[in-house]
Amino acid sequence: MLVVVASLLIVGALSSLWIAIAGTPVRRVDRQRVADYAVIEQPTVLNRVATAVEAKVDTAMKQSNRRLFTAEELALAGIAVPVPNLVILMACGAVVAAAVGTVLLGSLIVGFLLAAAVPVVTKMFVHWRTGRVRRKFSDQLPGVLQMMAASLRAGHSLPRALDAVAKEAEAPIGPELARVVNETRVGRDMLISLDDVAMRMQSEDFRWVGAAIGAQRETGGNLNEILDQVASTIRDRQHVRQQVTALAAEGKLSAVILMLLPVGVGGYYTIISAEQMTTFIDSGIGKILLLASALMYVLGGLWMRSIVRIEF
């Protein structure tokens, strides 16, 4: 029975692939007529299939107006894969995980859970990578502001100071400032570019920088002193943030252990004693207990998250 289910999953995946590539464009001009005037590299069948599938997935996401990821989010995470390609890889991984869980582990429920875990784990990984980049951006900000203030004190203009800091600073703040400089050179307002960086990095501190530069532009004043004061304020905020993070580290670790413990125990007993675990699915009281446990698990996770999460 399990082999039949796994075979149906594989056949379904292949059928979906066939449906995705059914709309491959047909040549309207004979290949020989085109070859008489130019040498054109003909794509292979695999390339045409991949292009058609990517186009179908991209069209479906645009029509539904739902995206698991954005292009900027993947760029921040350092994943050089287009969004449709990543969705296709996730779908293939989900099918493989479902087949492995159904055949090797001998449980259709485990296969379903493994398939559902593929997009969840991918989303968590992307979120973790983007969060790490944004934290590094915040840590670099005070030093970069001091470099800008020193450059302004030396007599450079604000665009020139931004350009110099963008060349000296490391990623991620260096490329972001270089993007601001390039957008300013093509005629975009600098304040709008700075605000876009603050939104992309989700940095309230950098939004203060843009507000300070905008206020100095309207009212005048010594910009290097303003940047020094903003840098000092941001450094104090980071010091308090690091203290709070250190004090809350024990609570966060306890929350992670408590959240992983039920999943680990349930997965262990599902593998070594699948017959006993099926009692929770075959009986009515077992289903009620599973539903109540899942509800309490979610509520407990949200409660612990609200306790250990400190917002600044």
From TrEMBL:
Pfam families membership: T2SSF
Compartments, as annotated in UniProt: Cell membrane
InterPro entries for the chain: T2SS_GspF_dom (IPR018076), T2SS_GspF_sf (IPR042094)
Record's keyword terms, sorted: Cell membrane, Membrane, Transmembrane, Transmembrane helix
Positions of transmembrane segments: 6-26, 74-97, 103-126, 253-272, 284-304
Originating organism: Aeromicrobium alkaliterrae
Domain of life: Bacteria
Alphabetical list of Gene3D superfamilies matching this protein: Type II secretion system (T2SS), domain F
Membrane topology value: Multi-pass membrane protein
Entries under PANTHER family matching the protein: INTEGRAL MEMBRANE PROTEIN-RELATED, PILUS ASSEMBLY PROTEIN
Residue ranges occupied by any Type II secretion system protein GspF domain in the UniProt entry: 145-269
Name of the protein: Type II secretion system F family protein
